[in-house]
Amino acid sequence: MVGKNCFAILSDRRLGVQLQTIATDFQCIFKIHDKLFLGLSGLGSDAQTLHQWLVFRHKLYQLREERDMRPETFASLVSAMLYEKRFGRYFCQPVIAGLGEDDKPFICTMDSIGAKYVYFFLLLLLLILV
């Protein structure tokens, strides 16, 4: 959900196998930096592995560029990492939410092989008003 210069992302904390609940404190939303969050749904072990790899890659980016990644750049990184593993893929579907330049909200989701779908809220708003 987005608003003017803000966004909200939420999920449940249930980890389960079919109808059996294993845990109720499983983390699905991860903070990458102050203006960027990553939500991972799907297989729990793949979500944790992918999160660790993405944190590692973000830290490398910070060392090289001396700044945080923009949400658009991070979405491209996630998409490339998922597509790289398309034959032995991670069974999770990421949602990337953040604030870009001028605190413009950005939300992107993708499937398990990295096909991105970026939500353009300005276009949706214009279509609704017309």
Entry summary:
The chain is α+β, with helices and mostly antiparallel strands and 130 residues long. 35% of the residues lie in helices and 31% in strands.
Describe this structure in words.
The protein is built from three helices and nine strands. It is α+β, with helices and mostly antiparallel strands. It has a single domain, classed as Glutamine Phosphoribosylpyrophosphate, subunit 1, domain 1. The strands form three sheets. A five-stranded antiparallel sheet has the order 5-6-7-8-9, with helices on one face. A two-stranded antiparallel sheet has the order 1-2. Strands 3-4 form a two-stranded antiparallel ribbon. The mean pLDDT is 88. It is an enzyme of class 3 (hydrolase).
Give the overall shape.
globular
Q: Give me the strand/helix succession.
A: EEEEEEHHEEEH
Number of individual domains: 1
Oligomer: single chain
Give the CATH superfamily: Aminohydrolase, N-terminal nucleophile (Ntn) domain
Low-confidence stretches: none
CATH class: Alpha Beta
Second-tier CATH architecture: 4-Layer Sandwich
* CATH fold-type name: Glutamine Phosphoribosylpyrophosphate, subunit 1, domain 1
**What is the first-to-last residue Cα distance?**
22 Å
Mean pLDDT, as a whole number? Answer: 88
Number of helices: 3
Summarize the SSE layout with pairings.
Blueprint: E1 2-3, E2 6-7, E3 15-17, E4 20-23, E5 29-33, E6 36-42, H1 44-65, H2 71-84, E7 92-99, E8 105-110, E9 116-118, H3 121-129
Antiparallel strand pairs: 1-2, 3-4, 5-6, 6-7, 7-8, 8-9
Keyword list:
5-stranded antiparallel beta sheet, 130 residues, 9 strands, two-stranded antiparallel sheet, Glutamine Phosphoribosylpyrophosphate, subunit 1, domain 1, 3 helices, alpha+beta
